[in-house]
Design a protein that fits this description.
The chain has 266 residues and is of the alpha/beta class. The protein has helices at 17-28, 40-50, 65-79, 102-129, 151-171, 193-198, 205-221, 230-241; strands at residues 8-12, 32-37, 55-59, 84-87, 133-138, 176-183, 252-255. Helix 1 (17-28) packs across helix 8 (230-241), helix 3 runs parallel beside helix 4 (102-129) and helix 4 (102-129) runs parallel beside helix 5.
């Protein structure tokens, strides 16, 4: 018997990385998943891997409210309901505060922050109609402490933690629990150039050098001495999406190998 038997969960950004691993784990635990992403070929491949009884894919640009409605409709047509959401889609841009173009800042806000808002706005009523369920928002280690060159990214992830707390208060009486995950350095295409290369992206000389230095860099600053894996984040998402966390809502869960423990917050 799986921990998600009878559950239907929509996952944004599900074509690769954390989202794809969440889809695989959720399906293995008996859940049915609607995968949404803008990377259509990769998303279709993950859905095909899981099979039509377990998974469907739909194009989902999280900035577009109409796309969210289409994704939710697709989940209900395919599986009869939707009672869970993983707001996973996000982008990362490194830039110094005073050098960050306004267009770049707004791009990150549109995807990370507005996308999360639209996901909750769209899915919360449907989850309530299904009899209650869960929303898990993907924030970041950077939401909990400062990190240079991440003004836009950190701002959006801190906003996600704030929205999570407010949503949990508003939705508790409707049977919907809302929590946030705050991953640290996770070995995905977004944070590790090597993974981007595996996904078919071309690397220049600077990227190749970054591949060799990424693991060594995190080994020095993270107490566990390594980056986390998408599978480890997926297990946290599973915990927050199943009955094991039935009395947990409104909380940010840091999953970072002890990184934050070594950061002074005084």
């Amino acid at each position: 018997m799986g921990k998600l038997d009878g559950r239907v969960i929509l996952i944004s950004g599900a074509a690769r990385g954390q989202g794809a691993e969440e889809a695989r784990l959720f399906a293995a635990e008996g859940g049915q998943v609607l995968l949404g992403d803008v990377l259509d070929d990769e998303g279709e491949q993950v859905a095909a891997e899981l099979g039509p009884d377990q998974a469907h894919y739909v194009h989902l640009d999280v900035r577009d409210e109409a796309d969210w409605q289409t994704a939710a409709d697709t989940a209900e047509r395919a599986f009869g309901k939707v009672d869970g959401l993983i707001n996973n889609a996000g982008i990362l841009r490194f830039n110094e505060l005073t050098a960050t173009p306004v267009a770049e800042f707004r791009e990150v806000v549109d995807v990370n922050q507005t996308g999360c808002f639209l996901g909750m706005k769209t899915l919360a009523p449907r989850i309530e109609r299904a009899g209650g369920g869960t929303i898990v928002n993907t924030a970041s280690y950077a939401a909990m402490t400062g990190m240079a060159f991440l003004t836009a990214y950190a701002a959006t992830k801190a906003a996600i933690v704030g929205m999570t707390r407010v949503a949990s208060m508003e939705l508790a009486g409707r049977g919907v629990r809302v929590n946030a995950m705050c991953p640290g350095a996770i070995d995905t295409p977004m944070t590790n150039p090597a993974k981007a290369a595996e996904s078919g992206l071309r690397l220049d000389a600077a990227d190749t050098e970054a591949v060799s230095s990424t693991a060594a860099f995190y080994a020095k600053i993270i107490p566990q001495g390594r980056m986390g894996s998408p599978e480890e984040v997926a297990r946290l998402a599973l915990f927050l999406s199943c009955a094991d966390s039935s009395y947990v809502t409104g909380q940010p869960f840091v999953i970072d190998g002890g990184w934050l423990a070594g950061v002074s917050v005084l």
